[in-house]
Design goal:
Strand 8 and strand 9 form a beta hairpin. Strands 3-2-1-6-8-9-7 form a seven-stranded mixed sheet, sandwiched between helices. About 40% of the residues lie in helices and about 20% in strands. By secondary structure, it is α/β, with parallel strands linked by helices. About 45% of the residues are buried. The chain starts with a strand and ends with a helix. Helix 6 crosses helix 7, helix 10 packs across helix 11 and helix 12 packs across helix 13.
Length: about 425
Amino acid sequence: MDTKVVKFGGTSLADAFQFKKVADIIKSDPQRRFVVPSAPGNRFSNDIKITDMLYKTYELASKGEDITDIFEQIKNRYNDIIKELALNISLDIEFVKIKNGIINKAGRDYAASRGEYLSGLILADYLKFPFIDSAEIVFFNNNGTFDAEFTNKIMSEKLKNYEKAVIPGFYGVMPNGTIKTFPRNGSDITGAVVSRAAGASVYENWTDMSGLLMADPRIVKDPKPIDIITYREMRELSYMGAQVLHQDSIFPVRIAKIPINIKNTNNPSANGTFIVHHTEVISENVITGIAGRKSFVVITLEKDMMNAEIGFVKRVLEVFEKYNINFEHLPTGIDTLSIIINEQDGETYKDILFKELQAKANPDSIEYQKSLSLIAVVGRGMIRTKGTAARVFRAIADADVNVRMIDQGSSELNIIIGVNDNDFEKAMQAIYNAFA
């Protein structure tokens, strides 16, 4: 029998009513064997996520302040779910352990991870599935990086002994036994890791949206859905701001060529979006999607004969490496090199970067520009369709938006356009209108 791994986000498990929906979805398909839950999310617009409440609890405890009130709110959320599901399970012992752990400085990651842990215990009891603590099968290195291969080895062996199981998302364990979390929304990563270890036929990622959209609906009104997208396209869109799936969750399933199906807990009959290793299907829109982010800076170095100077780029990037600054893009000309970094790093390190770049690279000039937005136009069909770039830039020009930067990789999978922050929304809408 094929195996499906199913991950449910915070909104899918926000209350008992949502837990019931999740259980119905899982029980409707016997292939849904391994379940990865998140912590309860928002029940309504002004609600507070359990994870945010746990972070707040940790912050109060670290200052020596009383956490009784906020911890009672957390307990009540879970106890309400248990009561409304008519379960016999009691989490009282767990609550005592968690509260003591937070007070006794078990760590910020420990505090945050308990949301998924408690969700997992409740969901396992409700489904009558075994519960596997992620701290037993998800491992991090001493430097805090995820140990993918060791995790896959141990987890694969463990899952062979289970027909079904609930495995909480978001966290694992360090070599010293302390809890370590993935980045926020890291349950997506756990789901992908479990999918690889279980040899899943499909990784279903259940959210409150019926798949991916061509553009951010907060910027573009009623954007079209994306039926199918490749891992590479998804990686580009996630990195540039598409929020449905954590960008790092692509890698574990990509290794095993496991398709991801983004589904809607509140509309389970919808097909959603399939993320696949490869497809010959080309969107009728030519492009697959548009995504972008604001607040970057561009540091541009000019130097005559830069292209003939061996090691020039290496020396420049060593300056950024020294201060642990990642570059987003690196557009070049024959005598120019531009380094695009996030605005926070730029404003923090501007003076020292200028000083060290001058010393190490000896450029003729250095220019600094901020308030840059980056927009990625992504599509596997672009390489086969003439005039795609022309349509992009015509749309931007017709919207009276000035292009500050252009960067296109040799794969022709995407075009990156830089515009002023105050033109970001207008440019996104214009590009979408040109292709939708």
